[in-house]
Design a protein that fits this description.
about 300 residues; 10 helices; about 75% helix; about 5% strand
Length: about 300
């Protein structure tokens, strides 16, 4: 297609994965099982936290944000990806492509900001336990949660808005899904503003989350070292290990996706890394928190015992 022509049609072609026909349905089935596991685990934890009054605590309410975010991010990505894998014609409307990119980037940015809020919650609980009830009030939890979502939506709205304004001279999305970079590469206009803001967006998001997490855990480690309280140290290890594990998994997969965008010779690796960025944290979040949180673990066991051993 001539790069000087402007595409006015609303239908785009998705490049997708180059998969052998014999692996098409097994791969789609695998993604379906992964998606069902994400739905069952995250919705199950959400319903448990909502229904059990003893779990109506800031730490678990904040974790609900993470589960909602994981459900949103994977629902936007996986069902569409499964359809494209088994379909011979991978087509998507431009408006749907932009919407998928918006929700997918919101998922990524919200993951960072929600984990920052959760780190602050752990800092107050461990370093200032006597003030925890007055600092992490229900109103504070709502404001912190709303702030994390609001900042995410604002940053991503500008990111996608800069791309949506561009005209298109291509209709092939060289990816297995729609993201901001794949969409603005459809244009033959000057995309300097997109690249500059995209770099600003990435640097601010990653540097702020790494700084806040590092500062929080340094303060927690210092409080444990100065206090030399075995009970405090055990509490810090139990409550912070899960949070830190989730953050490192998300950070690693996010960095891998960004780095591979700079290497066009390995497109399939970039596509896989982006999918893993959605799938791995969403599957591990409820498992890690359930294993590390004694209260949540006990409630899950109680529910399972009631299901296995019904009242006589």
């Amino acid at each position: 297609m001539d790069d000087n022509n402007t595409v006015t049609g609303d239908i785009l072609q998705i490049q997708g994965f180059d998969i052998s026909p014999r692996f098409t349905y097994p791969l789609a089935l695998l993604l379906l099982l992964i998606y069902l596991l994400i739905l069952i685990s995250n919705i199950g934890v959400l319903l448990l936290i909502v229904s059990e009054k003893s779990l109506h605590q800031p730490m678990y309410i904040l974790f609900c944000n993470l589960s909602v975010n994981d459900l949103m991010g994977n629902t936007v990505l996986l069902p569409r990806l499964m359809v494209d894998i088994v379909s011979t014609e991978r087509r998507i409307a431009y408006s749907q492509c932009v919407a998928q990119a918006f929700y997918s980037h919101t998922f990524g940015s919200a993951s960072h900001l929600i984990l920052i809020v959760m780190a602050f919650d752990r800092y107050v609980a461990i370093c200032h336990p006597l003030r925890y009830g007055s600092v992490m009030t229900p109103r504070a939890v709502v404001l912190l949660s709303a702030g994390a979502w609001g900042v995410s939506v604002l940053l991503v709205s500008v990111l996608i808005g800069l791309t949506a304004r561009l005209s298109r001279c291509r209709s092939l999305v060289r990816n297995a899904y729609c993201d901001n970079a794949s969409i603005f590469k459809l244009s033959c206009e000057d995309v300097s503003a997109n690249n500059i803001y995209g770099l600003f967006f990435t640097v601010v998001l990653f540097s702020s989350s790494m700084f806040c997490i590092a500062l929080t855990y340094c303060r927690i480690a210092l409080a444990c070292w100065i206090g030399k309280n075995k009970e405090l140290n055990n509490k810090a290890l139990q409550t912070c290990a899960s949070h830190l594990a989730l953050y490192l998994i998300m950070l690693w997969s996010g960095f891998l996706t960004i780095i591979l965008h700079r290497f066009p010779d390995h497109p399939d690796l970039r596509k896989i890394a982006y999918i893993l960025f959605h799938v791995i944290p969403a599957n591990l979040n409820p498992i890690i928190y359930a294993m590390q949180s004694r209260a949540l673990r006990e409630k899950i066991l109680q529910v399972l015992c009631r299901k296995v051993t019904p009242n006589s």
